[in-house]
Amino acid sequence: MKKFCFLLSVLWIAVSGCDSSNDSGSSTRDRFKAERGNNASIEAKIDELLAAMTLEEKIGQMTQITNAQIVTKSNWGNGSDLSIEMTIDTAKLGVMIRTYHVGSFLNGVAEKPEVWYQFYKDLQEYNLAHSRLKIPIIYGVDQMHGPNYLTGGTIFPHAINTAATYNNKFPAAMAHVTAIETADIGHQWIFAPVLDLARTPLWGRYYETLGESPYVASTMGSIFVKTLQSDTTIAPYKIAATAKHFLAYSDPKSGWDRTPVDISEQTLYEMHVPAFKAAIDAGIESVMINSGEINGEPVHASARILTQLLRDELKFKGVAVTDWEDIIRLYRNHRVALNEREATYMAIEAGIDMAMTPYTTDFCDHLLALVKEGKISEERINLSVARILRMKLNIGLFENPLPRNDRFNRIGTAENRALALEAARESIVLMKNDGSVLPLAADKVKNVLVAGPMANLKSPLSGGWTLRWINKDESLHPDYVLTPFAALQKEFANAILVTTDAELKAKASRADAIVVVAGEMPYSEGFGSITDINLPPDQLQTIETALATGKPVVLVMVAGRPRIITSVYDRCNAVLFAGLPGFEGAQAIAEIISGKVNPSAKMSFNYPYAPNRLLPHNHKPTEALLAHDIPNPIALKAFGTGLSYTTFEYRNLTLSDSVLTSDQDSLTATVTVKNTGTVDGKEAVLWFVNDEVASLTRPVRDLKFYEKKLIKAGESVSYSFTVKPDQLAFPDNKNTQRLEDGYFTLMVGSIKTRFKLERP
Fold it and tell me: 550-589 in b/e burial notation, b at 16+ Cβ within 10 A?
């Protein structure tokens, strides 16, 4: 039965238009020609190298090894105890370069720029001295929110916070800072941005996403890509970005990392494809593949996803790299292959270009054997190698293969940290502020008690992918990084830290207000998978203790996702969702509480009301039906909402026309927003559309545009949105765009209007 299934997969690959070892290889040759770029010198160099390379050298270019395999000492521990001695073991490296011709290495931990510089210099110089054709190594690093694997680097808020700013300045700023702080030390292949959507907070990588809106992910993701890949301040270097994880990785049925996704083709196209398409249209050099499976088919073995969708439909011409050990997982975990060799066959034929093996060179041996056996053509190998060489040539690795150490003064500068602080300030959502308890007025609030398990820790503010894959070691954080308590002490000199509920009760009588900092300790990937989305009972008890004192309570949530707080939410006077605001996050939290900063963030996801109501804002109408008069609330705080210390009034929503009469027609919507309060504030205006009647069920609302502006107290500002018919179309299960005549509701703030698409 296994052989029958295996043969079926081979037949499917052949008929789908992908290269099969048994066909003439014509489709591979056609694809090779179609992917050639416009730079004649680059294409000539690729041809020259392919003609000169041995099969073993080509396969080496398709191999990526972790640096733990080439250093004198490494300890990857259990996911949290990470240490690397960044001194190269030349005997180990010699095997990789001289025997297996490995073309890429990855990973690491936070080290000083001088250490990274010497490591990469030694690595590249050894490669250039001992490899026959002098093809430079490309080094990949997960710089997820700034240069998080660089000691002294500038750490921005995570992507879930970036999305909440609704300010396109910040994905660009993070990309720029990442570029100037890492390109010189050889980090020219950045494994970011994450373009998965936030669909279930049970998933341990929720905070890596740009929220639950395809429009936000598409917009901010493409801005990050364009900025990172075109930054001229890092000349003579360039950087290749990576869109991950293709595709629908973030919507597992169980909610746990690397577990199956069961999803309709229509949902796949509408929700999960757009951000990747935007990145591809922006010229992204590489994509990393979903570690899980879609509708029963592991993505690393899916020609449907990796060739038909990624290459043929989305026109991607760059490098498709596996995630960690994911070819091996095809037989070890997914069990669709008999062994690693068969798994290698399936992955390469499906469309993989480079294997993040990452510990062994077994991939090289298996792929070599498969070609010699005639199961994979050398033309298929050439296709992947051409893509890899093109990426290396595009970023100038051949001209500038070595790092430099004369610009380290650009790392962690005051200017860069100021950008990270500004991003943090605009990423923290004021969810609730009953009676305008915030800001805590300095003339009235003298004594502040600070409680909660996250109150005096640094590591929760930045979460996973910070200094280590998972880092809970407070000593690794720079001295300048403040805990929430330390930051509040700067704003309120008499602030007191309490570490137990008993101490909180005892000292409450002297307090003017209590700030409870709750949330999550750092985690990454599967270590963040949880069975219970509720805030842990001990933390809820601390909040209850604070509430029982009768003092004003400000709850601050420092977490990579929403944890259910419904039982205490109504009784807290104010609630901030700080998310993961980075190294500058504590200062931003304290400044918002004190009133130095007027909050302007809005939720980048629906904050769930209950554990069994984990619905995004763009859900279907029938997902929220009331049953037997039982209340069925979805969001504790809805996507796109957030409070300010001023008030804004939306009025005079107008349309330039009420009817769109052709596919090329457009209309302009305009709304006036007045700051009716007494302080200046920034307001992000979000425009939603609902298709009232359609042939396929439509979301209750769909974000189409956002814009953020500063509005001074008492002033009015006009915001506009141009509605075009292609924004009203939606895909069916074959990605055919349907544009259907009828009425649409346009929503902005609390007002709405209708317009019609009516073509002759």
Answer: ebbbbbbbbbbbbbbbeebbeebbbbbbbbbbbbbbbbbb
Distance of CA 683 to the CA centre of its chain: 24
CA distance 701 to 681: 26
Predicted pLDDT of residue 359? 96
Token pair for residue 412?
């962690």
Q: How far is CA 541 from CA 500, 504, 544, 552, 634, in A?
A: 11, 12, 5, 16, 24
Separation between Cα atoms, residue 103 and residue 718, nearest integer Å:
53
pLDDT at residue number 15: 33
- pLDDT for the residue 5: 39
CB-CB neighbours of 381 under 10 Å: 24
- Sign, CA dihedral 245-248-250-256, equals negative
What CATH code is carried by the domain that includes residue 79? 3.20.20.300
**Alpha-carbon distance values, 733 to 263, 567, 753 (Å):** 11, 41, 30
Q: Which domain holds residue 691?
A: 648-757
Q: What is the dihedral of CA 555, 560, 566, 569, to 10 degrees?
A: 20
Q: What is the CATH number of the domain that holds 533?
A: 3.40.50.1700
- 488: its two tokens: 């509040």
Residue listed under structure tokens 């009025």: 651
The label of the residue with tokens 């009676």 reads 435
Beta carbons within 8 Å of 255's beta carbon, 6+ residues apart: 200, 202, 203, 529
- Predicted confidence at residue 16, as pLDDT, reads 37
How many Cβ atoms are within 10 Å of 164's Cβ, its own excluded? 30
Alpha-carbon separation of residue 237 from 139, 233, 241, 413, 635 (angstroms): 13, 9, 13, 20, 46
* Helices 362-372 + 378-394 axis angle, to 10: 130
Q: What is the pLDDT of residue 20?
A: 42
Give a yes or no: residue 488 inside a domain: yes
Residue with tokens 């290889």: 25
| 313 DSSP 8-state letter | I
What's the pLDDT score for residue 48? Answer: 98
Name the residue with tokens 């949880």.
530
Q: Are residues 656 and 684 in the same domain?
A: yes
What's the half-sphere exposure (Cβ side, CA atoms, 13 Å) at 322? 32
What residues form DSSP beta bridges with 189? 140, 240
Question: Taking the model in full, what pTM does it have?
Answer: 0.95
Cα 376 from Cα 19, distance rounded (Å): 8
Q: Are residues 460 and 496 both part of a single domain?
A: yes
Helical H segments across 231-327, by residue range: 265-267, 273-281, 303
Which of 378, 409, 440 marks a domain boundary?
A: 409
Distances (CA, A) of 157 to 160, 170, 243: 8, 10, 19
Q: What is the pLDDT of residues 338-387, one digit of tens each?
A: 999 999 999 999 999 999 999 999 999 999 999 999 999 999 999 999 99
Contact between 484 and 590 under an 8 Å Cβ cutoff? The reply is yes
What is the per-residue pLDDT for 17?
35
Positive or negative torsion for Cα 291, 207, 215, 241: negative
In angstroms, the CA 148 to CA 165 distance is 21
Q: Is residue 252 in a domain?
A: yes
Query: Are 188 and 139 found together in one domain?
Result: yes
Structure tokens at 273: 């494809």
For residue 639, tell me if it sits in a domain: no
Give the span between the Cα atoms of 508 and 68, in whole angstroms: 51
Element (H, E) at 418: helix 414-425
Distances in Å between the Cα of 417 and the Cα atoms of 152, 164, 613 are: 11, 19, 38
Q: Which residues are known catalytic residues? A: 323
| Burial category of 257 from C-beta neighbours within 10 Å (exposed 0-12, middle 13-18, buried 19 and up) | buried
Strand partners of residue 122 = none
Which residues of the chain have a pLDDT value below 50?
Answer: 1-25
User: Does one domain contain both 178 and 88?
Assistant: yes
Q: Are residues 216 and 309 in the same domain?
A: yes
User: Per the structure block, which two tokens stand in for 361?
Assistant: 């060179």
Question: How many domains are contained in the chain?
Answer: 3
CA 443 → CA 82, 322, 562, distances in Å? 47, 57, 33
